[in-house]
Amino acid sequence: MSNAKTATVEVRLPSRLGYEKVAMSAASAVAKLMGFREDRIEDLKTAIAEACINAIEHGNRLNEKLSVGVVLSAGADQLEIKVIDDGSGITKPPPKPDIDRKMHGEEDPRGIGMFLIQALVDEAEWVSGADGRSSYVRLVIRLNQQAA
Questions:
Q1: Mean pLDDT lowest among 34-43, 73-82, 87-96
Q2: How many CB atoms lie within 10 A of CB 98?
Q3: What single-letter DSSP state applies at residue 76?
Q4: CATH number at residue 53
Q5: Could you tell me if residue 72 is inside a domain?
């Protein structure tokens, strides 16, 4: 790792839908400070919203006694985000969705979050907690990977 200093911002959200907006705002502010372009910041906000909603609904099962942790680590050339919940994580990714079937109402419109997240960021990794708790998704968005 380089000697560049990393700035870390941590946010703890209640497991209640709507609070993903707080994580979106924090990530947007950090990405702006780092110099990300507006379109990349919008991609990041969408990916973080999806990850937080998944953590609230699937990880913590809407249990308001549990919280979702969001850790933003700003390096010299990339922003790493971890969205942490108290669930056991996913054992295997769901099958690739048929977007056309979903759009035409032939398939449940839910279930595209993981694929959307992967399309919007440079790296996405789902990690299951060793103890069946504290699972997280790790997202990375790089400054130098921005399209012209």
A1: 87-96
A2: 12
A3: S
A4: 3.30.565.10
A5: yes
Whole-number pLDDT of residue 96: 63
Residue recorded with tokens 């497991």: 15
Q: For 93, which DSSP code?
A: P
pLDDT: is 136 or 3 the higher one? 136
Instruction: Show the domain range for 107.
Output: 7-145
Given phi > 0 = left and psi -120 to 50 = alpha, else beta, which region is 75? beta
pLDDT above 70 covers a percentage of the chain that reads: 79
Count of domains observed in the chain: 1
Q: In this structure, is residue 48 part of a structural domain?
A: yes
Residue at 119 is within a domain: yes
CA-based nearest residue to 70, from 62, 79, 61: 79
Cβ neighbours, 10 Å, residue 35: 9
Name the pTM for this structure: 0.84
Question: Got the DSSP string for 106-139?
Answer: SS-S-S-HHHHHHHHSSEEEEE--TTS--EEEEE
Mean residue pLDDT across the chain? 86
